[in-house]
Design brief:
Order of helices and strands: HEEHHHHH
Number of helices: 6
Helix content: 40-55%
Number of strands: 2
Largest sheet: 2 strands, antiparallel
Structural class: mainly alpha
Distance between the termini: 40 Å
Shape: elongated
């Protein structure tokens, strides 16, 4: 359960168990974009793909965990979170250079 007034007024996202006795994790302070996504979804009942795409990866992961914990994975179709491809290309070049230089550690190869 999401405490609607806290999201609307304070930009905080407390998610509680259905018994309302305790939170399902830490109360998260959310960005205005995340707040708009939640408010839109709570009011309309539909996930906006455009608003979801504007979130940073950390907020997307948090949203995905909240949807999974709520049991709404069948109702809400979520896109997989893609890391920034440029970062992955840079990381691959660094690892390739280390391997060519003679570092053949199993963790590097993995």
């Amino acid at each position: 359960m999401i405490h609607y007034p806290a999201v609307r007024d304070d930009l905080k996202l407390p998610i509680k168990y259905p018994t309302r006795s305790k939170n399902l994790g830490k109360v998260k302070v959310v960005s205005p974009e995340y707040r708009e996504l939640l408010m839109n979804m709570l009011e309309r009942g539909v996930l906006s793909d455009r608003m979801y795409d504007e979130l940073v990866n950390e907020e997307k992961e948090h949203f995905n965990q909240a949807v999974k914990a709520s049991g709404l994975m069948e109702t809400i179709k979520l896109k997989p979170i893609n890391e920034d491809k440029k970062d992955l290309v840079v990381r691959l070049k660094v690892l390739r250079g280390q391997f060519i230089a003679g570092n053949n550690a199993p963790t590097l190869i993995k």
